[in-house]
Structure formats: structure tokens, C-alpha cells
Amino acid sequence: LSKRMNGILFIDPIPFLLHYPAVAHNFVYRVPRTGPEWQLWYFASRDPDIARALGRHFFWHEAILFREDIVHRGRGKRVAVSLAERDQIVDTEEVRRYLTGQTEVQEKWEGDELEVLFYPGLDHATVFDTLERRKPLLDVLHRFVRDSDTT
Q1: Distance between CA atoms of residues 56 and 73, nearest Å
Q2: C-alpha angle 78/80/84, rounded to 5°?
Q3: Which of the 8 DSSP states describes residue 4?
Q4: pLDDT for 28-50, tens place per residue?
Q5: pTM of the model as a whole
Q6: Which among 76, 69, 67, 77 is positioned nearest to 7, based on CA atoms?
């Protein structure tokens, strides 16, 4: 991670646990049943450029992120990860457990210069739909910017 960045906010990230088969299956092979799944299938999975990139130029080992890649104990970089419980692409419950090491669900978890925001009942990217949902993300960004001004 760049020395110029004080903090990073991942929103519904795909790269964590990318080696699990659910990611490829949910994005490329799953037959859509719900409205959000149809939307993802039509506008993303079947887009010619995305399909070509995934089919011909994507190598998971080049795009995967591990917890150790983002947690820099004592280096001053803060990382926040926002996860939607009903994400159609990744198993966010598994990602949440992987990042936090906790089995108990908390809407906000902090530790090791990492914080995880968990949104129960939301789908992929629906955190952007209302100001109320976006507010915790904006608070994280404001804190990252404020902290970067003091360093």
C-alpha cells in the first residue's frame, strides 16, 4: 500500500477469499432468481468487456487480498471494510469471520488498525442507496482525512 495513503475504505470488496469457489460461481455461473441477481447478471456478468476480461485476462492469485496485506500493525494505516450481509457475489459472513476472527456478528468491529462495518439485510452496493446507510462510511472517510491532516 502506498506511503501516501493514510487510510483505505473497501466497500463490498471482492478480493477477500477470492480463492473460494462461491465468488466465481455467483458472478459467472449462477442462474439469477431474484431482482438484484438479475440486475447483476445483466449489467455486470454478461457485459462483453467484463466477460472477456474474466474469461481471458483474470488470474485470481493476482487480485486476491489477504488480511495480512491490509493490516500493518503499528504502521499508522487504517483500513475499513464495509460488507453487505446479502451480497450476491461473495459470502460476506465468511469474509467477516476471516477479517475479524469473530463468530459473533457485530455491525461495527475494530481491531489491529482494521474496522469492519457489517450491514444486515443489504445487497451488494445498496449501502449507497440512502444517506442514512452512507453516513457510517462518510464518518470513516472524514476520520481518515482528519487523521491524515495531523500526520
Answers
A1: 37
A2: 175
A3: T
A4: 888 999 888 898 888 888 888 98
A5: 0.85
A6: 77
